[in-house]
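Protocol step 4 of 6: record predicted structures for both targets in the notebook before any analysis. Target 1:
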Amino acid sequence: MSLLELKDVHTYYGAVHALRGVSLKVEEGEIVTLIGSNGAGKTTTLRTISGLERARSGSITLNGKSIEHTAPHEIVRLGVGHSPEGRRVFTRMSVRENLEMGAFLRKPGAEVQADFKKVFDLFPRLKEREFQAAGTMSGGEQQMLAIGRALMGQPKVLLLDEPSMGLAPILVEQIFDIIKEINSRGTAVLLVEQNAMMALGIANRGYILQIGEVTLEDDCKKLANNPKVKEAYLGV
């Protein structure tokens, strides 16, 4: 039984058929990446998993439990964290208040405080900015906060949507190192990332999405050496 599995998922935006039978799986301990051009359905896939969009048909299971008709906050409770495209931090709230929002389903106590410490250990910059308004921070700091907020829900699987978008190259490397560290601590990751080379470099397996369909799946080393993938996504 996979940690997370989608089978033949179809999602629509009105009359637009955005996902056309997407099937994929994430096993415990894995980093899996979704690669595709703009409009391929990558963000829609993550939003459908987290309940922000509804699959019209198909199944989504977490640890064997069906979640395709579950409310988004219950999906968080079950163990899916989501750091969305564009970060979406609460700009007028402090760093700490944003992190508290990530733990809103949990009872306050020692366990939550321990997770604050874990997030601050991963992102020392957030500790330095703990009482600063999130909207006054840099893009890189806001990305760290978005990931930290998702981690405060104690996810079994973390959905990351374009974590390197708009960041300087040195920060991109830092974010990817942090993703590897999060994974090494036991959280599976489903990664959508415009930097396909970097994504394939840290992930175990990958799926290529084109116009809402999975057209290729394989071990990331094989994908990185696939001539069609090289030409379309790696600029080689």
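Target 2:
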Amino acid sequence: MKFENLKMPDKGDRVVVGMSGGVDSTMTALLLKEKGCIVTGVTMALWKEGELDFPENAVFHDSCYGPGEKLDIEECRKFCAEHDIPYHVIDVSGEYKVQVLDYFKKEYRSGRTPNPCIRCNRFIKFGALLAGIKSLGIEYDYFCTGHYASVVRGDGNIASQYGEGAVQNENAEKRPAQIAIAMDSTKDQAYFLYRIPSDVLEKVRFPLGTHTKKEVFQMAGERNLEAAKREESQDFIPPEMLDALFSDRPSVPGDIIDMDGKVLGKHRGIEHYTIGQRRGLGVSAKEPLYVAAIDKEKNLVVLGKDSDLFCAGLIADDLVWPADYNPECSFKAMVKIRLASRPVSATIEPYSAEDGEELCGKAVKVTFDEPQRAVAPGQSVVFYRDGITSGGGIILRAIK
């Protein structure tokens, strides 16, 4: 199947740009302004003063969530004023607390490893923020951000992307908007965007998807943008703030054991650990040990050797598909089990719950062509066919 990029904003089009103060979103707004688009800048306010207590000497490294948000907003406001761009700040902190922060804490306390950026994109940046734009009465033809990805459409129906075994239903004939990976594979963010509904994507565009990060910095430098001097944003919440985030209730210490059940030490609470972790375990051994499993029911952190981290596959539920079309068949795809992992070949097939197993909606079994390391429940597995996101879900468990 062939895919084409959806039409980009052109001269005279009304465009709202989600801005963070960083070089990517700032450059996006300026490129569209130079193109003759009618640009409006918006920033989502996430941080609520006094909500968390954290050390005064904490360093936040340009985190997208934190008290540094005030400076980001002022930089956006200054840039927009200098370039005659209307600018608005939309408070989505309430929705962010429920959809991202509370979710983040609940997942970690369940022994899982959530991805807050994916959650934020689905419910906040391309959800609550768009609702806020609408509530202000701002009309637009396109909503653009500085993500490195593209929005495309195939020349055939969605069912044909999964082969002859794909189920035929009311959604099978649709040709939805889908996310394609960016030209700059080192900065590709398609993984973060896979849960955005197809109908929302119809008016979403990513003008930087055909540029490399190096080109963006070069263009920003040529225009003497202050944003070009900033460091890139890091994790949504820095390590210095984690203790403050989990301070709403005491951690429950427990045993750290090896694969044979031998007690090696004590952990400070399972929310402070994740699959594959090596540093900060507080145990000594003759060879490197890693977190191989987390048992919430028994409050255990299980350590193993590197070889113990490899898995044959995984079970994923809470699935999303382009056009809400679940092919309900077996198909091959490239998959990613975390942002930093390389795509690997796998077989995806429908999965039925085992006795006593609870699923969030329908589920799939993903079998890797080659075993993969550190499959972490709570993270996302995303499916790609020909560089196009064709579905994904939340990892329920690994298959050893």
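Step 5 preliminary note on target 2. The chain has a mean pLDDT of 93. The radius of gyration is 22 Å.
Proceed to step 6 after PI sign-off.
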